[in-house]
Amino acid sequence: MEFDPASSSNGYWFILKGLSLLPIWHYFLILATLLICFLYNFLEIHFFEDLFTGFSGSAVDFTYNSSSEIYNAVVSKCRILHGRYSVTPWLSSPHLQTVFLNFFGRPPVFNYKRQLFTTSDGGTLALDWVTNSDDSSSVVNKDESTPIAILIPGLTSDSSAPYLKHLAYHTAKRGWKVVVSNHRGLGGVPITSDIFYNSGWTEDTRTVVNYVHKENPKAPLFIVGNSVGANILVKYLGEEGENTPVAGAVAVCSPWDLLITDRFITRAPVQKFYDKALTGGLQDYAKLHQPLFSRLGNWEGIMKALSIRDFDDHATRLFAKYETVDTYYRRCSSTPYVKSVSIPLLCISALDDPVCTKEAIPWDECRLNKNIVLATVKHGGHLAFFEGITASSLWWVRAANEFLDVLHSSHYMHQQKKISKPNAPLDSSIDQSPYINVTEDGLVAGLNNEPTTENQKKNK
Known about the structure:
Residues 133-140 and 421-460 have low confidence and may be disordered. The strands form three sheets. The chain has an eleven-stranded mixed beta sheet with strand order 2-11-10-9-8-6-7-5-4-14-15, sandwiched between helices. Strands 1-3 form a two-stranded antiparallel sheet. It has a two-stranded antiparallel sheet with strand order 12-13. 40% of the residues lie in helices and 15% in strands. The longest helix is centred in the middle third of the chain and has 20 residues, at 269-288. It starts with a helix and ends with a helix. By secondary structure, the protein is an alpha/beta fold.
């Protein structure tokens, strides 16, 4: 049979003629369907998966040592952790959850009381204490044995971040004292030394922990770290071992291995959105402190940075004096310190976290350490875990608070071993600046100076 070009052309003509007879709205419907299918897969939406299971949610998976007393005596009693996490139906995507948290978040309304903290190297930190009323003494007048929770923010976050406000408010609502230890240069505080914070900078956490413990020696001390703050927390705990006054801790959505996280966040198109967004946040942070960044880093490179890695190459590694970016990532990752954690530690991560990949989770290291329980959930995004039809609460906040409550009521809280030599000088660590009220609209108001007990003794 011979090929007839004329008949082939006639066939195409008839096909096009038939397609032209279809109403135009059919084509829009087809394009809309294709677009929805693309977005459904691109955004990793799991609405139909949840629908088919009746939105019953998924159980929490635990990784722990078989002889772990922390799991057997503490976590096993946590009803929330042993329940199921059900995602808010209209946020059935790790990306929708994460974006919604950062742009909306629905944080509770309350005020902080600010305490300016001066480190031994001349740096300044803002310690924001939760206050539930206009009375500035509502925090400091609690019983001296009231538990204290120190919260460590993530990258470029401060106490105003929605996820931190959820955590701070609901932790304080249980009757605890709560303080957010803002990173250097964040929270509206200037950088007053040539030392900057980074993803593995533990000295500020160490200094704040020692100070808070010194001022409240009878109060059980707990820490919750989020994202990069979780990496800093785990690294700090591993560095200190038994030599820490912290009774227990929770690490939420930790990046664990910064090198793996760096590779992950530049791999896929959707991850690159987060990379660019976080880079923009770092550049805004640099602009706030341009004179120092210009003097100590490569300002042109900082402003042209297209990724976190670029920013770290032109700024972070130079400030911290690391030879390469990979050297910085390796030395500041918390994974090598997991084995040395000597206090009860709950780690919470979502397997669909679009920023801190599950590939970096140190499963085996967590399983070998009797003090660590790793709780992983199928969905949740990055620091989101919205629940309920109105997305008014974060599941991980409830889970973390329940763990700390059960731990506090048990006899498994860590007791610090005798310290032969302090890690950092504690004297003169707080300046005599007035406390500051940080209101919901970001305004600040000075309060009367409230001297510490130690200062009162000196004044007598």
